User: What shape does this take?
Amino acid sequence: MSHLSPPAGPATNAQSAASWSDWAGDHTTALIGIPLRIALIVVILLVLRAVAKRAITRVVQRVLEPSAGEERSRPRRPARGAAVLHRDRSRARQRREQRARTIGSVLSSVVTIVLFMVGVAMVLDQVGIALGPLLASAGVVGLAIGFGAQSLVADYLSGLLIMVEDQYGVGDSVDLGEAVGEVEHVGLRLTHVRDLNGGLWHIRNGEILRVRNDSQEWARAVLDVAVAHDANLDTVYRVLEDTGRALREEPDFADVLLEDPAVWGVQSLDADGVLVRLAVRTAPLQQWGVTRELRRRVKEALDDAGVEMPFPRRAVWVRTDTPDGGAEALTR
Assistant: This one.
């Protein structure tokens, strides 16, 4: 005996259409509302990222523009003093560009990461995934990574502070402890310094505890001149002052020396002679060349003035025999 299904009639079709309509009405929010909200979140985050990157780019351009403007509009003044308190223009521009672009890149990356994390959290909330367990797990993982990479984080933070505070830059002559020389590269994690012998030092920024920068604002050339004990100090002072004044009046050193060289007086009294100090303020990175030129000219001027340089004094004991068969010691 066969069972035959009743023919589908208008009532059955009506019930099926009603069930599909009810299902679509119940899931309209899931099918249309949630995707629309997710798309809206993505669009808003992309717009915010574009606006933030544009603002960062404008800040970087404003940092770079004054350097070019100064090069075009800064008058060439022969006056001494504050007029020459500036670094080499090409190096200054390179240094400013590096700082601005690096800081801009860091800010753009931070903005992108923050917006991405916010977007992921909002999307997960829309699809109904609980954020509490995820945040707790992320916190544990982040804590473990933080403990393992704390030196790396310290390097990046130190590098960012070095650039923001302008402690040193490319072309500066610095003393970072064992590494002493010229800075060739400044990054967020490493600083490259080329020493006098040509060796390239790679220093982690987190390990830099103190910096001596010889390239900022001004420098000082210090020359210690040793003369004999019987030399006339008034004559020595006059010769040193005249030599320093003549050096500053020359065109090649007019923009290098920021003031007239000054004799600071007797620095020390040694067994071999008297040490007199001569000092002058110079433009950055010019102190060594000025010291060498002053040393040469001072030597020639002291020779012309008849001032003798000191020489080591030694006691010589000479043993001589006396007629009566004894001995005596003579000191020379």
Remarks:
- Confidence is low (pLDDT under 50) at residues 67-87.
